[in-house]
Amino acid sequence: MEGAIENLLFLLEKHNLDIIRFSAEPFLDGIEIDINKRLYDFRYHFKENKVYNKFEFLRQNLKAFSPSPCLYIMKRSLLLDNKILFTPKIMHEDELFTLEVFLNTKSAMYDPNAYYKRRYRADSIMTSKKVEKVKRSFDSYYLVMNEMNKLLKLYEHPIEIKLIRARMRLIFNSLLSKDINEIYKWKAIVRIEGISIMTKIFYIMKFFLRKLLNKK
User: Fold this and answer.
1) Which of 24, 108, 123, 166 has the fewest C-beta atoms lying within 10 Å of its C-beta?
2) H or E segment and range at residue 195
3) For residue 61, what pLDDT band results from cuts at 50, 70 and 90?
4) Is residue 34 classed exposed, middle or buried when 0-12, 13-18 and 19+ CB atoms within 10 A define those classes?
5) In whole numbers, what is the pLDDT of the chain averaged over residues?
6) Are 120 and 127 in contact (CB under 8 A)?
7) Please, are residues 104 and 84 in contact by the beta-carbon 8 Å criterion?
8) What are the domain boundaries of the chain?
9) Which ranges of 41-181 does DSSP label H, i.e. alpha helix?
10) Which of 2-6, 70-74, 137-141, 159-163 has the lowest mean pLDDT?
């Protein structure tokens, strides 16, 4: 979108913000799948031009978290001061990166403009069903889960903990659905920390019930 950087930098400097989130418009490129056209429209969770403090921002992200760094602009100092880097050589590195960015954001705003075009294409990380990619995706999510478990020991506020655990539950669900060697998968599932036994049982039962219903 023309003027995107100029508009965002103006707001960032005017309100002395750490971060501005914005919307995106998804589109298909050579692939036929169902997509939610409003998946990257966060107007129902954030108020336009409202300056959110840290805990207001985290609370809204319990309902409107999106890991893609393409959907926000931030101060460089936010990364440098908090030593936030992408984990190299893994998939889904944005899950951990964005969570740490949000946890260290002190002031934020939402701009409803769709400054980003989100392309869905064949054989991408999110759409590929190749065995080697699915296995690598599983291993990367497993590593991300372990790093998120470490974050639970670094943050103390209930909203911080709640957001970290919410992301861990979602990723745990993704791990269950990965179509890889069953023995390998369940050995990894058992080792995961940071999620209670009861929560694990709940999601595992949901997973098997869904599989059973899909067979009928």
Assistant:
1) 123
2) none
3) very high
4) exposed
5) 90
6) yes
7) yes
8) 1-127, 128-216
9) 54-64, 76-82, 93-103, 131-151, 158-177
10) 2-6
